[in-house]
Design brief:
Distance between the termini: 74 Å
Shape: globular
Number of strands: 17
Number of domains: 5
Largest sheet: 5 strands, mixed
């Protein structure tokens, strides 16, 4: 392979073909006035014994196009590069990124830049170069973590503190009390998983088929015919298969394992149709269910290799599991099949013992044949309101979406869709009806979606773990058209306040439509379902899908219908009995889709979801020391403000927080434990050990700073409460709390103040109840952010004052005896006196 021209490659298998191909490339390039930079070109030779160090390559003389000249090009055999990235060589990629970080330098200015400026410089000048390289070829997770540590080390050396901070703190988001620096390890994991999904779901058949062949080799040759990317087998290690599988796929597998996410094949209909090898079926079954290998060989000799040639499914009308296979009454054997015919009774009994449910479970690697996960689904709760003879019908597309039966993925997609639409029609038939205040024609519909809370956090408990309000909006439109299709009503006129749906469907019905346009669309499976319903209806147009602005003062019919839908959507989430779950449209999902037992199917915002899952697992890991140091569950669960950590022009307080939360400030007690070069007692003359808590809370040398900060935050809190007209019964406990917030008092868990870590005590229970008038979330956020900023600012001032006094003390040596704090002896028990010296 020769890399020539401008990031182009000529791939050949013989030397003569290589020369012809290169000469043709040069001829085309010369005709357009281009010229190859031969100093940057290279020849990559694989599987050739004793290759030469250089080769002579033909070219065209730019001054004489009819003249062939030759150039000398270096030969590489250990690796190959294309688009400036090594091909399937993560180690070389890691070395390139390592050198990029090592050689990176911050701007040489006289004063140190603040932490916020360092973050911006790293993102714009370093991470921007690393991200595209990782998209082309990710590196191993171990090497990515090493690069994170390297970046943290560079930041630490620039800041000039003696003890290094915890690198995990630097690269976690603000909700976890961290500093929101980009993490190469998370970017690498997201790039690897996105690359695997891109290969398996590629819109070009040639690339998609190559990926499916590779996955089939992984499944059958390496993993004993079990799907290697499902939750039951994702915990296995394939690190030794580096020469059998693409390295990006192995990295993606380890990233899926780290994020506790699996990959599902949403189309297993070949098990239903029987278009699957008998040998494959026999290998994936447990040993107690499999048949002798000699029987499979005899069937193959008789011309029978697929399951459909000897068995079929006879599902019941309700399609209830386990859906057993039935042997064909008279299979067709070819010549030389006497042995297979003799064994046919044994084969028939084996077929009768199999079921679709058991085969799918075994293929997915589940050892427990009765394992059926019952988990929340991704489809969001959407509401649909219809007026028909002065009554209102409602359909709820909830997240549970019937029970998540893994075996149902083996049903043909057309059958899955038919079942889902029949289920929705049944929900219409049993839905309660309430009269509207205005008469509405039968074919007029109003739709709306609702989510409580409207902007949930990652895995925050709600009706549908990974659902969001946009899915409810689209599902309501789907439900309307399903009802119109199966109940043979007039083409529905639907009013929706979801402008995005109206715009997307308008453009989707305009030819030509290409499915890859929706490759990153949110809720694309629902949009595909909606587009199919509209395009196959009697009037395939979106003219009956009308956008109507919501929450206006209009009295028009569309607005009243939309308001009624909105009211029902909100009310449905507050009832004791939840609405019936809606089917998950796996029949319109990508062939391979991410899945977790806690969230269901993840088909959009994949990088954001994976990053959140990896962050959650990192924080929950028992080896993550900052989580054990701060114990955030004991304190108020607010999110710190962004300004001090991301936008402040002077971020010394944020730097102090970085080292404080890591437990790496060089106070006297810490230096005494590590170096023994100074007394562990307070440098200001106190008899206590000079720990971080003593410096920031107990030391009387900083009482004036405490008083100033307490007065300031007390005044700011009073103004905000006064402007918000908060009752006096609420103001008094809040102001009492603020006055003592920097001291060890009873409002702190364990009665120990931790304000210097940027955390705050929980608010009094009387202020957080639903009946409390202090439920203005905006006011609560302003107060908590104000207290947080005051706390970290006070910690920064105290540490700066301490550093100045400590520097003066160290210049003059340790304090003289007259000023040296008295060290009280520690009493030692008599039977330990010979072992432990008196201190």
């Amino acid at each position: 392979m020769l890399e020539a021209m401008d990031d182009s490659a000529s791939i050949t298998t013989t030397a003569s073909a290589f020369e012809r191909s290169t000469l043709l490339l040069e001829t085309i390039q010369t005709a357009y006035g281009g010229e190859t930079n031969w100093d940057k070109s290279a020849m990559y030779i694989q599987n050739v014994t004793n290759p030469p160090p250089t080769v002579s390559v033909p070219s065209i003389d730019p001054f004489s196009p009819n003249t062939v000249i030759r150039h000398t090009v270096a030969v590489h055999t250990s690796h190959a590069h294309f688009l400036r990235v090594p091909i399937n060589d993560p180690h070389t990629q890691f070395q390139a990124l390592h050198d990029l970080i090592v050689n990176f330098q911050f701007p040489p200015i006289q004063d140190r830049l603040p932490l916020t400026a360092l973050r911006r410089i790293m993102m714009q000048c370093l991470i921007s170069k690393i991200c595209p390289r990782l998209d082309f070829l990710p590196i191993t997770r171990e090497n990515a973590i090493h690069l994170d540590h390297l970046i943290a080390k560079k930041i630490h050396e620039y800041l000039g503190f003696p003890f290094s901070f915890n690198s995990g703190l630097l690269m976690l988001p603000l909700p976890h009390y961290e500093f929101n620096f980009p993490s190469i390890s998370r970017l690498n994991d997201c790039a690897a998983i996105n690359g695997l999904l891109r290969d398996l779901n590629h819109h070009l058949p040639i690339f998609r088929n190559m990926a499916l062949i590779t996955l089939a080799d992984w499944t059958c040759t390496i993993n004993h015919c079990h799907f290697p990317l499902h939750a039951a087998t994702i915990a296995l290690s394939f690190a030794r298969c580096v020469h059998s599988l693409p390295s990006p796929w192995l990295i993606a597998h380890s990233a899926l394992q780290a994020a506790n996410v699996s990959l599902r094949d949403t189309d297993l209909s070949y098990f239903y149709d029987g278009d699957v090898s008998l040998e494959h079926i026999n290998r994936l079954l447990p040993s107690s269910k499999s048949i002798s290998y000699h029987v499979i060989t005899n069937l193959h000799n008789a011309g029978i290799s697929n399951l459909a040639q000897i068995a079929s499914l006879s599902p019941s009308p309700s399609l209830q599991p386990p859906l057993p296979y039935q042997p064909l009454p008279s299979p067709i054997f070819s010549h030389n099949a006497s042995r297979a015919q003799e064994q046919w009774p044994q084969i028939s009994n084996w077929i009768s013992s199999l079921s679709l449910q058991e085969v799918v479970k075994s293929f997915m690697g589940s050892n427990n044949p009765m394992w059926i996960p019952h988990v929340p689904r991704k489809c969001k709760q959407g509401k649909d309101v219809r007026e028909d003879h002065q009554s209102v019908g409602r359909i709820d597309s909830g997240p549970s979406a019937m029970v998540d039966n893994l075996w149902s993925l083996a049903l043909p997609r057309s059958l899955q869709r038919s079942m889902a639409e029949s289920y929705l029609c049944a929900c219409f038939a049993v839905a309660p009806h309430e009269p509207l205040t205005v008469p509405v024609p039968p074919h007029v519909w109003g739709t709306d979606g609702s989510m409580v809370p409207p902007t949930p956090k990652f895995r925050q408990q709600r009706f549908g773990q990974s659902a969001y309000i946009g899915q409810g909006e689209v599902y309501a439109l789907v439900a309307v058209h399903v009802y119109a299709k199966h109940c043979h009503t007039l083409a529905p006129t639907t009013y929706t306040d979801h402008l995005n749906s109206e715009c997307i469907m308008s453009s989707a019905l305009q030819p030509p439509f290409q499915h890859r346009q929706w490759s990153s669309l949110l809720a694309r499976s629902l949009y595909r379902w909606l587009r199919s319903l509209i395009s196959h209806s009697d009037s395939p147009t979106t003219s009956n899908l009308i956008y109507t602005p919501a929450h206006t003062h209009s009295t028009s019919l569309p607005l009243k219908i939309n308001e009624a839908a909105d009211e029902l959507a909100i009310h449905a989430q507050m009832t004791f009995l939840q609405p019936p779950p809606a089917p998950v449209p796996t029949f319109f999902m990508d062939h391979f889709t991410l899945y977790t037992s806690a969230d269901g199917y993840i088909e959009s915002n994949i990088s954001s979801f994976l990053s959140s899952a990896l962050i959650r697992n990192t924080v929950a890991h028992p080896n993550f020391r900052p989580a054990n140091t701060m114990l955030l569950l004991l304190y108020d669960p607010y999110t710190p403000p962004e300004h001090p950590y991301i936008r402040a022009s002077s971020a010394y307080s944020a730097v102090v927080q970085l080292y404080t939360r890591s437990g790496q400030l060089d106070c006297a007690y810490t230096r005494f434990l590590r170096f023994g070069d100074m007394s562990p007692h307070c440098l200001a003359g106190c008899d206590d050990l000079q720990t971080m808590h003593h410096i920031f809370v107990l030391c009387p040398s900083f009482d004036h700073l405490h008083n100033d900060a307490a007065n300031t935050v007390h005044m700011e809190t009073s103004k905000m409460l006064h402007n918000a007209d908060v009752p006096l019964s609420i103001c008094i406990p809040l102001l009492h709390l603020v006055r003592k917030i920097f001291m060890d008092r009873e409002h702190w868990p364990r009665h120990i103040s931790q304000y210097y870590l940027g955390i705050l005590p929980p608010l009094p229970p009387a202020l957080t109840t639903k009946a409390s008038p202090f439920q203005n979330k905006h006011l609560q956020t302003r107060l908590l952010h104000s207290w947080h900023s005051a706390a970290i600012r006070l910690a920064g001032r105290i540490w700066a004052d301490y550093q100045r006094s400590a520097r003066m003390t160290r210049r003059g040596g340790l304090a003289s005896k007259s000023h040296r704090p008295s060290i009280k002896p520690i009493a030692v028990l008599s039977f330990l006196a010979d072992i432990i010296p008196q201190l």
